[in-house]
Design goal:
CATH architecture of the largest domain: 3-Layer(aba) Sandwich
Helix content: 25-40%
Number of helices: 11
Order of helices and strands: HEHHHEHEHEEHEEEHHEEHEEEH
Shape: globular
CATH topology of the largest domain: Aspartate Aminotransferase, domain 2
Structural class: alpha/beta
Strand content: 5-15%
Strand order of the largest sheet: 2-8-7-6-5-3-4
Radius of gyration: 22 Å
Number of strands: 13
Bound molecules: pyridoxal-5'-phosphate
Distance between the termini: 28 Å
């Protein structure tokens, strides 16, 4: 285990020309010592790897294996079918949704967990288009979006007889727009889009908003209710540490819940699922976003993982994230890389993307030296900063190893 709170960050050699490494090491030690979230790191299974890929797969909270052991041996193994009721399996999608709600600024009863983000993009987008009038025949999609959102939006537009229109956040939104699908933080560049302003702009134009929060949920305040967002979706295996493929979430604004017309109305979203009637009567509230039988093991791993947020404010997470990414940028300033992520705090998510030659090979080498980020086509090195378990000493070490690899 590396100890981010001790000042003994081993410094040998230099990170090339630039600020003295010892000065940066002193600064890292100072920032680690003042870090109010530093103790959270002990909640995670982190070895001496510098793990900067929590924006792809969050680290394992240490208490989760014991909880999963219990779920498997007692709830599944001993109670079997009784667990749907007695262990609360049936209501887990709404219950876990209520755990996520405060992290994205949503009211209780407005978030449901289940299915993948891709599937939830489909539900939200088709429902948004169905809500808009028939004269609104355009679906606007963030042009640099994560590919799955674009693929799904294209199919949703074709199925609903609309036209897909590439959109750059900030572009004018015309009177024919039915819905606008935007990524809160761009997965490649780490750019944060202005959710309050863009939501207000879409509403002025009479369009519905669908926000993809994959790279912001658990990383920064979102304020879904405060800003009147219509629909939102997001992953739980990134900054929420739910585990590989843990189910995603879907938010529907309270005012839209009664008219929410899901394109995938499975039996779990029925008002009386066990009535087994041929007619479909949708449930009220968040359960209407469900489809079929939830993936209980993944869902309960996520529920357990969310315990690390007890007593943690998302504001404190954001504050640390900005200081951490500022510090990393300071540490790499003199390296031969191009900074892709915006300098401005208002436009920065919780990751730093750098561009360099042979980025794929550079990242492989970094990983072999214990600094794990990832590579995105064509030439981007991504470093995700998860404030709950990444410290300032980690940021410096990552920068120093990057300097060695590039040198
Ligand atoms: C990670 C990510 C996804 C992933 O979708 P899945 O259905 O979970 O594979 C979708 N959208 C964005 C913006 C992402 O960053």
């Amino acid at each position: 285990m590396s100890e981010p709170t001790t000042p003994e960050i081993t410094v040998t050699g230099t990170a090339g020309p630039g600020p003295a490494v010892s000065a940066l090491a002193a600064k890292a030690a100072e920032l680690d010592a003042a870090d109010e979230l530093a103790a959270c790191r002990d909640l995670f299974a982190i070895d001496d790897t510098v793990y900067l890929d929590g924006n792809s797969l969050g680290a394992l909270p240490r208490h989760v294996p014991a909880r999963m052991q219990e779920v498997i041996t007692r709830e599944w193994g001993a109670l079997r079918i009784r667990s749907w009721e007695e262990s609360g399996w049936w209501t887990a999608p709404e219950r876990v949704g209520d755990r996520i709600a405060p992290l994205v600024g949503a009211a209780p009863g407005t978030v449901v967990v289940g299915d993948s983000t891709s599937v939830n993009v489909f539900k939200a987008l088709v429902a948004a288009v169905r809500t808009a009038g028939p004269d609104r025949d355009e679906v606007l999609v963030d042009a640099t979006t994560f590919p799955t959102d674009g693929y799904i939006a294209d199919s949703a537009a074709r199925m609903t007889g609309r036209r897909l229109v590439p959109y750059t956040p900030g572009d004018p939104i015309g009177p024919r727009a039915a819905a606008v699908l935007i990524n809160h933080v761009d997965y490649r560049t780490g750019r944060l889009h202005d959710l309050p302003a863009l939501t207000a702009q879409a509403h002025m134009a009479g369009a519905m908003t669908v926000w993809d929060l994959c790279h912001s949920a658990g990383a920064l305040p979102v304020g879904l209710a405060e800003h009147g967002v219509d629909f939102a979706v997001g992953c739980t295996y990134k900054y929420l540490n739910g585990g590989p493929g843990s189910p995603a979430f879907l938010y529907v604004r309270p005012g839209l819940q009664p008219s929410f017309d899901s394109p995938l109305p499975g039996w779990n979203s029925h008002a009386d699922p066990f009535g087994m009637t041929p007619e479909y009567t949708p449930a009220t509230g968040a359960p209407r976003g469900r489809i079929g039988t939830p993936d209980i093991l993944s869902m309960l791993a996520l529920e357990s993982a969310l315990d690390v947020w007890d007593g943690v404010s998302i504001k404190a997470v954001r504050a640390k994230s900005l200081v951490l990414t500022d510090f990393f940028l300071e540490c790499v300033r003199h390296l031969p890389v191009e900074q892709v992520t915006p300098q401005s705090h208002a436009e920065r998510g919780s990751q730093v993307s750098l561009r360099c030659e042979n980025a794929g090979a550079v990242m492989k080498e970094l990983i072999s030296r214990g600094v794990v980020g990832d590579f995105r086509q064509p030439d981007v090195l991504r470093f995700g900063f998860t404030p709950l378990y990444v410290g300032f000493g980690d940021a410096l070490r990552a920068a120093r190893v990057l300097g060695e690899v590039l040198g």
